[in-house]
# Entry
Amino acid sequence: AKLLDLAYGNSQRNKRIKVLVNPFGGQGAARKLYASEVEPLLRAAGCEIDAQETTHSGHAVEIARQLNVDAYDVVACASGDGLPHEVFNGLAQQQKPRRALRKVAVVQLPCGSGNAMSINLNGTNSPSFAALAIVKGLRTPLDLMAVTQGEKMYWSFLSQAVGIIADCDLGTENMRWMGSARFTVGILTRLLGKTVYPAELAVKVDIDDKQAIKAAYSHVRSQREDVSGRREWEAHQDLDGDKHDSLPALQYGSVLQDVPSDWEKASLPTLGNFYCGNMAYMSPDTPFFAAALPSDNHIDMVNVDGAIPRLKALDMILAVEQNKMFDMDVVNYRKVSAYRISPKLRPGQKVGYISIDGEKVPFEPFQVEIVGGLGTVLSRNGAVYEFEGPK
# Structure
């Protein structure tokens, strides 16, 4: 018993886990990876497992919407980042959505092509190491981002992209035969061509000074605040009533309403890249949002002009992997609480791309607002991601 206490610390033992396996994830390898590298570890750790395969797009939304949140501690997604996105949105559609999002931790067993969630929270792209991290993971609050577009509203946990990132991710499907190299080729082609993505932007800025952003990040890392302890306590309370069960009202309304008067507005005719995130890593070698934190009530916003010199643009690609992009003078890095972007097609452009958590959405204006600590995940640390932060 003493050894188990030392091994698990504050982490819950014998977790009850609903496993969702995307059999199409990771080029069809997710089913095999789960069976060989994950399930034996979870069973050896005494976890209760209820596994189910998803059969179609949106299936995880349906499962999470109907899930008995008192029967499970964790929903584990053997997939890429698409299934966690669906699970968060399904839990948010329950009759008592805030309670559902608080009680059930959403985690990723990295079995897809995009495994950012596991890399940030568990520090690994390996299904077996992720399983071990989940067995001993700490319940951690995660900010979620409310996205409104037209009449629709949904939740984002990872990122939103307009410009070169979205274009290269979604606009190079015809180059899938190249594997991950298609993304590099797409970026180089567009950078060298100085491709621009015009847009109108309105932002509720919280911190726009890079040194202040670094100081705020360092404060959280040094304090090691016990955010996981708070979420562990909340999960085991029978809190009823509208205050604890319903989703919080959006502070800034939707994209269909007027832009608040105190937001900063800008016309960006030569926008090159617009990227907003809630986690540090967007892929194993791209810590794009160096100062991102799980629950700081901010969205990290990066935008770069498309007319910067080509050499600077190429330097920026290398700087991302080396964690040197944050301080580059051509990179506008801000902490914001909400924004609205209205992208436009440039002359001669026929199709535009917007990516939300890596998924394609209609090319039309959308608005995003942070909702602090609404979601729950498991992490190795509880306070910061598995990243060193801005240098």
Summary: Residues 18 and 50 are 5 Å apart (CA to CA).
